[in-house]
Structure formats: structure tokens, C-alpha cells
Design brief:
Residues 1-24 form the signal peptide. InterPro entries: AhpC/TSA, Thioredoxin-like_sf, Thioredoxin_domain, Thioredoxin_ResA/DsbE_sf. 19% of the residues lie in helices and 39% in strands. The protein has 418 residues and is α+β, with helices and mostly antiparallel strands. The protein has 3 domains: 34-127, Lipocalin (Beta Barrel), CATH 2.40.128; 148-238, Lipocalin; 263-416, Glutaredoxin (3-Layer(aba) Sandwich).
Length: 418
């Protein structure tokens, strides 16, 4: 009997030791760390994007989109042994993907907006590939260097203002940004091969793809694709003097108005108005935005730290969000994500559905709302002193520097007024 008990205890001890050893064995990385090249299928086009994955387990993993000098980080979730879920931060969309047996990643870019089944773009991704469009050594020699400033004439079903392209070419490599009255495209990256060029950009919202041709007279023709359905054609002429309409003159107060008036709910449903005591006698910045809008999040990434630094100088700010669903609970979720990400310490209100006509109706003193974002600056007497349409980020160079310089100069002057 003693021998049997001893044998049983020995067997249990060995089994426990073996089990502990197996459980303690280091787990294999859930996905390869390093640089990847993804390719969306957009209509009949292949739209490449580059990204980096870091982290040996889902809890520490970071997914970084790479566009020229720009980097955008996102959190990775593992939803099964071989599946990934990457929420696009404040944008209500995600990459949903599977790690295949050969190490490749396949999946789709999926809209998460309730009752919206539009943007679903399939993609594949391969580890270790760093190029964008053409594998090094396979490009044709460029027929022309397209570096410079371009006047882009737009052709679409709806009347669309012309755009300005800022391009930089080094050998076959092409980078740049497209400016419009609503803002900029963020940084684009691509290539020139022979008399053709391609650019793409993916920073979280739907990817951008531009394909064009360099004509014999050195003009450009091409097409810009935004998401699945929004495709516009353009002609381009190099023009160092071309400019967009003045963003300070596009939206203005209707005749007879000096002040802006609105009453809208905050994220807890409490009504907020410019006539509230909190805003009396202060300079107030009103930012009209949407979390779905990349220029709006770029504007917020500028305004929030500026406000946190200057809020004790007699200045307040309000963000009015127009979202992809006319529902306060949904807006509380999307705008709440924006608040957390950018450490917003000013009031955020919900304006309604993301529609320029609706926004114009909610703010009847304005002649029209032309773009998200639109920034309105109000002086200490409650009178509107400035309205700026759109936003141009750091990639626009001198445009951004001029904007920041004017912003600080004008706000300093208004804050100094009694």
C-alpha cells in the first residue's frame, strides 16, 4: 500500500512539473514584428500602404501607418488565435484581419457606423516589404520631374473648386499633399515611372489614391479616388503663383448679424449656449468638427494643447460635433473618444447629423458652412471677429506656419482687449 501511494505521489509530482513547464513555455509572437506592405483593392485599382507592427503580444502591440514622414499609431486587439482587430482611433472604422498559415495578413477595412454598410475594402499584407508601388530596380526612368506647385482643375458631377498640389520628386520617389478649400489630403507617397505617376495615403480614414499621366506638354491628367465611390478627374498645370480662395472670406456672418447664437446639448445632454456665464467677457473659439473628418482631428490636435496652455488668459473654446448618426448616445461615444485621445478640456457639444446644410441651419447667423472644420473666433463683447474655413496641417509647410503665426498674433490681440 505504501509503495502504491509513493508511486501515485511521484506520478502526480511529475505530471504537475510537466504541466507547469508546458504552461510556462514562452509563447510564439502572435504576428511578425517589423515593416509590412499592404494593398487595398479599390474598384479595379491596387492601392498600397505601408505599416509597422511592434509588440510580441496583443497587450503591447502597436500598429503604425507610414506615409512619408507621417506616423499614426493604433492599438491592436487579438480576437482569436489568428485574427486581429485594429480600431482606427477616433474614426468609426477598423481593420479586421486574419493571419494566414503562410504568414500573410488578409482582411478588410470596415465601417463601424451603425446601419452603414458602405466602406468595406479588402486588403492583403506581406511582411518585410518596404516599397510603396514599384519594387526597387523595376521602375522605368521618370520622363519628367514633377516637383513644384500645381494648379489642379477638378471635374466632377457637383461643382468642385480647384485644388493645389505640392509635389516633391527625388528620382522615382514622389511625395506630396493636395490642398483644397476644406483642408489638406495629409501626406501622400508614391512613384513616377516613365510618364505615369501614382500616389496613395492611408492614415485611418478611407485611403486616398491618385493616378495620373505626364503629358508631352508637361501638364498632368489624372484621377483622385477617395474611398469606394468618390472619384474625380483633374488636369494639372504647374503654377508657382496659384492659390486657393482666401479661407477667411468663404464663410461670414449674414448682413445684420454681429454675434453667433446657438443652444446645443453637451455629451451629457445638458444644453450649452454662448450666453452662459462661463463665456461672458471671454474670447471664445468655436470649432465646428466631426470625428469622421481627418482635417478636424488635425485641427483638434492643434487647438487642444494650445487651449490647455492658454486657458487661464481669459479664453474659452467649444467644439460642436456633427456625427455620422443623429443620436446623442452615439455622439457621446465618438466625441468621447476624441476627447480622451486629445485631452480636450473645453466643452464638446453635439450638433446633429454630419451634413453642411444641417450645420448651417443650426448656426443661422452664418451665410453657409462650407467645410468641416470651420473655426469661429469671438471677442470679449461676444462679437464674431474671424471665421476660418478648413485646416492645413504641418505637411503643408509655409501654409501651416503662416496659419499658426496669424492664429497666435490674432488671439494675443483679442485676449489683450478689455
Amino acid at each position: 500500500m505504501k509503495t502504491y501511494k509513493h508511486l501515485l505521489l511521484t506520478t502526480l509530482s511529475v505530471a504537475t512539473l510537466w504541466s507547469s513547464t508546458v504552461l510556462a513555455a514562452p509563447e510564439k509572437p502572435f504576428v511578425k514584428e517589423g515593416i509590412w506592405r499592404g494593398v487595398f483593392t479599390l474598384n479595379e485599382s491596387k492601392v498600397p500602404f505601408n505599416f509597422e507592427l511592434k509588440g510580441k503580444d496583443p497587450r503591447h502591440a502597436v500598429f503604425t501607418l507610414i506615409n512619408g514622414t507621417r506616423r499614426d499609431d493604433f492599438h491592436v486587439q487579438q480576437i482569436a488565435n489568428d485574427s486581429l482587430y485594429i480600431k482606427m482611433n477616433t474614426y468609426d472604422a477598423a481593420l479586421v484581419a486574419k493571419i494566414e498559415s503562410d504568414g500573410k495578413i488578409t482582411g478588410e477595412y470596415r465601417s463601424l457606423v451603425p446601419n452603414f454598410s458602405g466602406n468595406a475594402l479588402p486588403f492583403t499584407a506581406e511582411y518585410g516589404q518596404q516599397y510603396r508601388f514599384a519594387e526597387p530596380g523595376t521602375e522605368a526612368a521618370p520622363a519628367f520631374n514633377v516637383s513644384g506647385k500645381w494648379d489642379l482643375k477638378i471635374y466632377s458631377k457637383e461643382p468642385t473648386p480647384n485644388r493645389v498640389g505640392l509635389l516633391k520628386q527625388e528620382g522615382n520617389r514622389l511625395t506630396g499633399v493636395i490642398l483644397s478649400v476644406v483642408g489638406d489630403s495629409r501626406e501622400l507617397e508614391g512613384t513616377v515611372h516613365g510618364n505615369e505617376f501614382e500616389l496613395s495615403g492611408f492614415t485611418g480614414p478611407s485611403p486616398i489614391y491618385i493616378k495620373g499621366k505626364i503629358n508631352d506638354d508637361k501638364s498632368l491628367t489624372g484621377e483622385i479616388s477617395l474611398g469606394i465611390y468618390n472619384n474625380i478627374k483633374f488636369d494639372g498645370e504647374k503654377n508657382a503663383a496659384v492659390e486657393l480662395p482666401d479661407p477667411y472670406k468663404l464663410t461670414y456672418l449674414k448682413e445684420g448679424y454681429k454675434k453667433l447664437d446657438f443652444t446645443l446639448p453637451d455629451l451629457d445632454g445638458k444644453n450649452v449656449s454662448l450666453s452662459d456665464d462661463k463665456y461672458k467677457g471671454k474670447v471664445v473659439i468655436v470649432e465646428i468638427i466631426g470625428t469622421w473628418c481627418p482635417n478636424c482631428t488635425d485641427q483638434t490636435s492643434f487647438l487642444s494643447p494650445w487651449f490647455n496652455k492658454n486657458k487661464d488668459r481669459g479664453v474659452e473654446a467649444i467644439a460642436i460635433g456633427f456625427e455620422q448618426k443623429d443620436d446623442l448616445a452615439y455622439a457621446k461615444y465618438t466625441l468621447g473618444k476624441l476627447k480622451d485621445k486629445y485631452n480636450i478640456q473645453y466643452d464638446i457639444l453635439f450638433g446633429g447629423i454630419a451634413d453642411k446644410k444641417v450645420a448651417s441651419e443650426k448656426l443661422p447667423a452664418l451665410n453657409r458652412l462650407l467645410a468641416f472644420p470651420t473655426t469661429i473666433i469671438i471677442d470679449r463683447k461676444g462679437e464674431v471677429r474671424q471665421i476660418h474655413t478648413g485646416y492645413t496641417g504641418e505637411i503643408t509647410g509655409q501654409y501651416y506656419q503662416d496659419y499658426v503665426a496669424k492664429w497666435n498674433k490674432d488671439l494675443d490681440a483679442l485676449i489683450a482687449e478689455k
